[in-house]
Design goal:
- The chain has 381 residues and is α+β, with helices and mostly antiparallel strands.
- It has five helices and 21 strands.
- Strands 2-11-14-13-12-15 form a six-stranded antiparallel barrel. It has a four-stranded antiparallel β-sheet with strand order 3-10-8-5, with no helix packed on it.
- Helix 3 runs antiparallel to helix 4.
Length: 381
């Protein structure tokens, strides 16, 4: 046993020493600092940094302009509704008759006196014939009574008739005359009733509503049609009490309908009192006839109040950020400065600047929306 253990001991320690050397060499290879990484890092830093004396590059190319003094129109903006100038209510003037025909519809143009609808006429025609017969009978009775009264007057002073008999004949003449006049009136009433079986347009205009239905039995006074008189529309703009003093009768107003169509109107009247709910005052503006203008629709109006001088810039120069308006002034070193401004009127491609910009400033136009404070830019014409 001792003979076999001796060789094993002789080889164990050299092998253990060799393993330790191998482990130490592996640890040194893994943990030694790399000489190439710092060199690469230094090379990258040198590439990113600008060379000594090199100029910084512009961030953006822009065009610039100077603010201009222009004469801009002064306009008062208001909202309101388009309404009929006047609406006529066309109703039934007969009672208990049936509608036989309806000749018009909503939107139809009608002329004064045009037949809009008709009622059944047979009953009224019969009443008219009866009234005419009663008139003829009353006329005959009057003529007979008149003849008797004329004879009585002729012999009144002869004593052939007593005074009471003469008075009786004269009274019968008056009664017969009254009955004749009453018959005339009755015939006239039936003829009016017969005429009212035809519903006529009271004026030129456009049918805006229709309640008439063929076969319906309507009561007197019931509305059958609604008519926009003469087809005239008006815009009823709402202005505040502080603004109404700037408006004059006959003033020009540009009214923009809901369709986008703009028409020119004129102020016809101003309400004498304010609305108790809104506290606004109505301004009545006559509008020209146009197919795109519809009653009871919303419209926007602009009152022309003259002109005044203003400092303006192109609309491209004004940048909206965080709810505020800004322009970018470019200095002599081509650096952009962000200036907060207060804008006013907008006419075409020009915007009025009320505050925040000097007249001699150079303002960025194209590319202004991409600039930030302090950006270096390249200015081109």
């Amino acid at each position: 046993m001792n003979a076999h253990s001796t060789p094993r001991r002789r080889w164990f320690w050299p092998l253990a020493a060799l393993a330790l050397v191998i482990l130490a060499l592996a640890a040194w290879l893994l943990l030694r600092p790399s000489d190439e990484a710092p060199a690469a890092a230094n090379n990258g830093a040198n590439a990113a940094a600008p060379a000594e004396g090199e100029q910084p590059r512009p961030a953006l190319t822009v065009t610039v302009t100077k603010p201009q003094r222009e004469s801009l129109p002064i306009r008062l903006q208001a909202n309101g509704n388009i309404a009929a100038w006047q609406e006529a209510s066309v109703g039934a003037e007969v009672n208990g008759l049936r509608l036989s025909t309806v000749n018009v519809n909503v939107g139809d143009q009608v002329r004064k006196g045009q037949v809009l609808a008709e009622f059944v006429r047979e009953t009224t025609q019969a009443d008219t014939l009866q009234a005419r017969a009663s008139l003829m009978q009353a006329e005959a009775s009057y003529q007979n009574a008149k003849a008797d009264a004329d004879r009585a007057r002729a012999i009144e002073n002869t004593g052939a008739l007593s005074k009471s008999q003469v008075a009786q004949y004269l009274t019968q003449e008056k009664v017969a005359l009254a009955q004749w006049e009453a018959a005339k009136a009755a015939l006239g009433a039936t003829e009016v009733r017969l005429g009212n079986t035809r519903v006529l347009a009271p004026d030129d205009g456009v049918i805006s509503a229709r309640g008439a239905t063929v076969g319906a039995v309507v009561a007197a006074g019931q509305e059958l049609f609604r008519l926009v008189r003469q087809g005239r529309l008006e815009w009823r703009g709402e202005v505040t009490p502080s603004e109404v003093d700037r408006i004059r009768i006959g003033q020009t107003v540009a009214v923009t309908a809901a369709t986008g169509r703009e028409v020119q109107g004129k102020v016809r009247a101003i309400a004498p009192s304010a609305d108790p709910q809104t506290r606004n005052i109505l301004v009545f503006v006559d509008l020209p006839r146009h197919a795109e203008l519809k009653a009871n629709t919303f419209a926007h109006g602009s009152f022309d109040l003259g002109q005044s001088e203003a400092l303006t810039v192109p609309s491209q120069s004004v940048v909206v950020r965080d709810g505020s308006n800004y322009v970018f002034a470019i200095d002599d070193q081509s650096r952009a400065s962000q200036l907060k401004v207060r804008t006013g009127r907008r006419v075409g491609e020009r915007v009025e600047i009320l505050e925040g910009l000097k007249e001699d400033a150079s303002v960025a136009v194209q590319g202004a929306g991409f600039l930030n404070e302090g950006d270096l830019v390249k200015v081109v014409q």
